[in-house]
From TrEMBL:
Descriptive protein name: Fe2OG dioxygenase domain-containing protein
Organism lineage string: Eukaryota, Fungi, Dikarya, Ascomycota, Pezizomycotina
InterPro entries per the UniProt record, alphabetical: DIOX_N, IPNS-like_FE2OG_OXY, IPNS-like_sf, Iron_ascorbate_oxido_reductase, Oxoglu/Fe-dep_dioxygenase_dom
Family: Belongs to the iron/ascorbate-dependent oxidoreductase family.
Domain of life: Eukaryota
Species the sequence originates in: Saxophila tyrrhenica
Pfam families: 2OG-FeII_Oxy, DIOX_N
Alphabetical UniProt keywords: Iron, Metal-binding, Oxidoreductase
GO biological process terms on file: small molecule biosynthetic process
Length: 395
């Protein structure tokens, strides 16, 4: 970060023509100089948030057999429960427990050994050009839900939260387009939303313009995270190790309690705390965004320090806005005007992850996502994708 303070943007200014230019200016500086921000007056009802967050203790207190029944090991989509310290970052265990969830979607992957003739797209249409035999399509699929008896109202609360934050994320992307000085709606089709109206009606949306390419609406991912108090003599205090987000385009993080822990790396290589601020989301940018803007907008490095032995349990809920698995970073880059790519700020961070994004082998978002999931959950990867795939992505 160029500045050592994380800005707080008031999204209600977007609805006031006199304040909106100031908001867009703040957003520009947050995008190009800071890489991390809070948003308030974001439009997600506090009752929608609390309906989910109030259920987190009950979810994590499910009997061990019930949690095990929701294990990620059951899911080729890497959706489900991971026990305490089962995930690693930078080769070290993260002292947290989690449920990985996502947009509820059906399976589209077709086992190549069974595919005959045409593909079927997500809407069931035969004849799609999309190759659903590609391995990364297997990441897409349904959640594992707790039973209604165990955590009453969980599925409804999760779904309402997902839908509200998805809507916020789409509104926020429109503001980014305005801050970039590009037409509002330019990125809509990344999310399977309406194409921009074709400038030339004769092409009927089928011209070779980039806008003509439609995608399946992506799967957004949501982590439900619990960081329990760490043991008195922990070898490490790593709640989650230093990283840049690689699960999507933008991240909208809700810090449930008032406990500190989240820290952001500044350009002077010092860790700045990102304390929870009531009624706000923390927003940051993923590796794909950094790669698409050729580093003009940085995916800022952050980490979480585990609560101390006498602290309370910390819960948090990041929402990772998804991107189409069959989209390539080079393709996204085509939508980012040259003037935006030149506006590089001075955010620093762990470069290696973003560099690996620019490796042409992982140019498709699906490949880079699969690689990320394989590397953080090797047991799941080996079970569903096999040893060869595990070795390919981890070597
Ligand atoms: O728990 C938090 O506050 C942040 C978690 C995080 O950065 C992540 O899971 O990517
Ligand atoms: Fe993160």
């Amino acid at each position: 970060m160029a500045s050592d303070t994380i800005p707080i943007l008031d999204l209600s200014w977007a609805d006031d023509p006199t304040l909106k230019p100031k908001l867009l200016q703040q957003l520009q500086s947050a995008l190009f100089d800071v890489g991390f921000l809070y948003i308030k007056n974001h439009g997600v009802d506090s009752s929608t948030i609390s309906a989910l967050t109030d259920r987190l203790p009950a979810l994590f207190n499910l009997r061990e057999e019930e949690r095990a029944a929701m294990s990620k090991l059951n899911s080729p989509h890497f959706l489900g429960y991971s026990g305490f310290a089962e995930e690693t970052t930078l080769g070290k265990q993260d002292l947290r427990e989690q449920f990985d969830m996502g947009t509820e979607l059906s399976v589209v992957w077709r086992d190549p050994s069974h595919v005959v003739g045409h593909n079927v797209d997500g809407s069931g249409n035969v004849g799609s050009e999309r190759d659903f035999a590609k391995m990364y399509w297997r990441l897409r699929g349904p959640n594992q839900w707790p039973s209604e008896e165990s955590v009453a109202g969980f599925r409804e609360a999760f779904t309402a939260y997902h839908d509200a934050v998805q809507d916020l994320s789409y509104r926020f992307v429109h503001l980014i387009e305005e801050a970039f000085g590009i037409p509002v709606g330019t990125f809509d089709h990344f999310f399977g939303r309406d194409l921009l109206p074709s400038k030339d009606p004769s092409t009927n949306g089928t011209s070779n313009s980039p806008q003509a390419h439609t995608f399946l609406p992506p799967q957004h991912r949501i982590k439900l995270l619990k960081y329990p108090p760490s043991p008195a003599t922990p070898e490490s205090k790593q709640g989650v190790g230093a990283h840049k987000d690689s699960s999507g385009w933008l991240t909208f993080l809700y810090q449930v309690s008032s406990l500190p822990g989240l820290e952001v790396l500044s350009s002077s290589n010092t860790w700045i705390p990102a304390h929870p601020i009531p009624d706000t989301f923390v927003v940051n940018f993923g590796n794909a965004f950094e790669a698409a803007t050729e580093g003009a907008v940085k995916a800022t490095t952050h980490r979480v320090i585990a609560p101390g032995p006498d602290a309370e349990t910390r819960y948090s809920v990041p929402f990772f806005q998804g991107l189409p698995l069959d989209m390539t970073v080079s393709e996204v880059r085509g939508y980012i005007p040259e003037h935006v790519r030149r506006m590089r700020g001075s955010v620093s961070g762990v470069e290696s992850e973003a560099q690996s994004f620019l490796d042409s082998r992982w140019d498709s978002l699906g490949e880079s996502q699969l690689r990320k999931w394989v590397r953080s959950h090797r047991d799941v990867a080996e079970k569903w994708y096999g040893r060869e795939v595990l070795e390919y992505y981890t070597s």
